[in-house]
Design goal:
Helix content is 5%, strand content 39%. By secondary structure, it is mainly β. The protein has a single domain (2-82), classed as OB fold (Dihydrolipoamide Acetyltransferase, E2P) (Beta Barrel).
Length: 87
């Protein structure tokens, strides 16, 4: 699991069936002290949890596909939780 901040939204008029109704967010990866540590990426948000400025937990690779109810979607990253605070 990794931390990121939602910095934008990607709009796609055509999506695979698994992504219908799923928001695609641009996520800036950050470290636990909230410093940018990689290039932004596009992450699926199957539960439509996040909006701009939210801090999120995202997963990549096989874990990203399993964030969907169907257990599969053609994605490389998925948002799985909102972060309320970091102590």
């Amino acid at each position: 699991m990794k931390l990121g901040i939602v910095i934008g939204t990607v709009w796609a008029t055509k999506k695979t069936a698994e992504l219908k109704g799923c928001r695609l967010s641009i996520v800036q990866p950050v470290s636990s002290d909230m410093k940018e540590n990689d290039l932004p990426l596009v992450a699926a948000d199957p539960l439509n949890l996040a909006t701009g400025g939210d801090t999120v937990v995202y997963v990549t690779s096989t874990d990203a596909t399993q964030a969907f109810d169907s257990g599969f979607a053609p994605v490389n990253a998925s948002i799985v939780e909102l972060v309320e605070r970091i102590d």
